[in-house]
Amino acid sequence: MKKFLLTLTAVAGLTAASQAQEFGFEKGNFIVEGNFNSSNTNDKGTKAKTSGFNFNPKAGYFVTDKIAVGVDFGFGQDKKTTYAADIKTVATDKNFGVGAFGRYYFLEVGSRFKTYTEVGVGYMNEKIGEKKVGDVKTDAAKFNGFGANAGIGANFFLTEKIAVNFAFADVVSFNSRKADVDGAKAETEFNTNVNVFNNFFNTAKFGLTFKF
Fold this sequence. Notes:
By secondary structure, this protein is mainly beta. It is 13% helix and 67% strand.
């Protein structure tokens, strides 16, 4: 009987602790999140290799229980190696970006699923088309630009401090870039995605969010 009572007490304690967990954010919380993706291919028939990665870390602070502001970064690289007459050619594209964002949590689905809308602005630097053919190196074309976007996303809490982040898609985005040469004209792009709820899994980015 004593063992039975002790077991009941332990189960009750664990249940109470589980129920006491609060999933979500409050004023004064910090978050760190990010996503990383990479790809590699190797065609042994032609000896062609491609590789690439992108890493997008982000940090924010909750000024209210539902509003967070913060900064984000992004950097990535794509590389392609080919051979022609035993001459090795390596072509590389690189990008780096930094920006700021504001996020508003507007809907909770259950206790763990929190949806948000987010707006952001940022600066981007790109180096495209750098090549090395044998021992001869060709400099990359350089571009500088800025962008703005508004999108939607969600967090699903795995624990009280860790959540999976789903950055579904940009509903509206604007980008402008200009080659880093005298007399160059800006290239601009504006997109709207009104069917975001039908196709967001085609453009979703998945990562982890850590709450402090």
